[in-house]
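Schema walk-through. Below, the input block comes first and the output block second. Nothing else is stored per chain. Lengths vary across the set, and this one has 308 residues.
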Amino acid sequence: MRIHYLLTITLVLVILVKPLSALAHLTFFEGEVFRRYLGPTLVISFGDFMEVDIVNNEQPEWGKKLEGWNGMFAAPPELGGEDWSFDYPFIIPPGEINLAIAPVGYLKKGDVDVLKYVAAEGEEFCIMLNCIVPLCARYENFYPVIGILGPGVPKSDQFPYPYPEDCQDCGFKRVHPIHAAPGERPGGYGPPGTEPDSWFPAQGLYYMIDWEPDTVWMHLKGPGNFYIVIYDPEGKPGDYMAMSGWDECEHHYTPEELYLQKWMNYYLDDLKWTRINCKEPEKYGLVTMDAMIPNPPPCGYPGCPAGE
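--- output ---
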């Protein structure tokens, strides 16, 4: 079942770069990201559904976006359609919530992007979330947040959007990123210590200042519906790369996942996935070890079995 799922999303689900010995996340893209290359979103017009309209004596909603069907480059509904939302969330496959993933998306003005995970009865998992943005001058003051809605999540924060119907009694907790002074937001082309010719993608990113306020992690239990949400508190539009999960062990990924990385490196390098034409800032700060999350995370799960 899992292999079949992976084969259906060959052009979307990828791994950053080298075999996953460390610091690699399984990367996939929101359909909206590709609008930079594919043009405007397809919408319904009266002529498209003329026969249906005559039979039902109804006129379609003018200009309604077609989720999950946007021409031959469609983003299937299980991948969140074109715009990840509560109606069309990206579905994290069963049993894979611990895997290190990197959803990459674009927030429209006032937008919220959504991933969903349905935990089974008795299932336990460690959630670990943070969010970074491309190293572009226009994004120096762009601080989107990532959080989680779900049963057992403490009601630490206020979620500014309506709760989904199947999560009305859920708690919510999100990151609270530290904002840097002008020209001092940490940025670079990989974690501290990464060599210029290393396996890490050649893409500039603004990194966290301090992992503690910039990361949500906790031990959670099923059953229940959990929603990972990404949005900007001020409603600003922009590109982001989120991080979820902690398990980066190579032997926990399938051969299909390891193979797919080779096809998407081109798109990851040089920030080709951003919706804007990215101009690197003239000045930015250094990434320090304060931004690095301790490995393994202290929530009851080792990163990899000892010796592997």
